[in-house]
Design a protein that fits this description.
By secondary structure, the protein is an alpha/beta fold. It is about 40% helix and about 25% strand. It contains ten helices and ten strands. Strands 6-7-8-3-9-10 form a six-stranded mixed β-sheet, with helices on both faces. Strands 2-1-4-5 form a four-stranded antiparallel β-sheet, with helices on one face. A hairpin with a 2-residue loop joins strand 9 and strand 10. It is globular, with a radius of gyration of 18 Å.
Length: about 260
């Protein structure tokens, strides 16, 4: 079956795409010290769509940055697949992010002078690598950009620009893609298109995705939602609905909820 062939190409051979073990992250020191993460243990399953949610200041973006190697941990270990990234130097982390990780941000981060096609291929071009033509066609078809490849970002809608960013993240067949509020700058219709593509890239293309979001509707596209509060994982949902996500978020807003809900 065609889908199974693609999955074997795209999914990490490890059952776990990313893992945090006892991760702590503090900023500053002394009286100004801030504990952003307080001993987080988390496994991100390969070939699944995982959302991370929590109140403002809960540590969700910090956790994603640590998992993606964009920020170092104060204590604990982080793995991408079976590879420990804790203690890697800048050169090693740069190579890891280039070869094994895809990124999608709230800001589309497209170069305005390049076409959509050139923006999609840019990371591989910088690395001196050629895209797999068959995979390029499949990814472009999945995001519905076949008729827009020669357009520059200024000629594309916000939703189309984010789909270019999604295609760019997937083109290198990364072990995992991290998406930070990917629909934050989009209207509801464009946001739904991007989220549907992200889910399709997991279900049909075998991708592993971690998404930080504050939007309960966006979280319903994930297989699993992990909730943080005060730098700790306090709850999670499988097969989330908007109602169950909202109810969990409301519980986290109640006094002492982080303590009562802690796993």
């Amino acid at each position: 079956m065609e889908g199974s062939t693609v999955v074997s190409e795209a999914v990490s051979p490890a059952a776990t795409a990313a893992r945090a073990v006892g991760v702590r992250k503090t900023y500053g020191g002394g009286e100004t010290e801030v504990a952003a993460l307080r001993g987080v243990d988390l496994e991100i399953a390969a070939g699944k769509f995982t959302a991370i949610m929590g109140p403002s200041g809960s540590g969700k973006s910090t956790l994603m940055h640590c998992l993606a190697g964009l920020d170092s941990v104060t204590d604990g270990d982080v793995f991408i697949g079976d590879t420990s990234i804790t203690g890697m130097n800048d050169k090693q982390l740069t190579a890891l992010r280039r070869d094994k990780i895809g990124f999608i941000f709230q800001q589309f981060n497209l170069l305005p002078t390049l076409s959509a096609k050139d923006n999609i291929e840019l990371p591989l071009a910088i690395a001196g690598r050629q895209p797999d033509p068959a995979w390029f066609d499949r990814v472009v078809d999945a995001v519905g950009l076949n008729e827009r490849l020669n357009h520059r970002p200024s000629q594309l809608s916000g939703g189309q620009q984010q789909r270019v960013a999604c295609a760019r993240a997937l083109l290198s067949k990364p072990e995992i893609v991290f998406a930070d509020e990917p629909t934050g700058n989009l209207d509801s219709r464009a946001g739904a298109e991007v989220l549907q593509f992200l889910r399709t890239s997991v279900d049909d293309l075998g991708q592993s995705i971690v998404m930080v979001t504050h939007d309960p509707v966006a979280a319903t596209y994930a297989h699993r939602v992990v909730f943080l509060a005060d730098g700790r994982i306090v709850s999670e949902l499988e097969k989330p609905t908007a109602d169950t996500v909202l109810d969990t978020l409301k519980d986290l807003d109640r006094p002492d909820s982080a303590t009562s809900a802690r796993l």
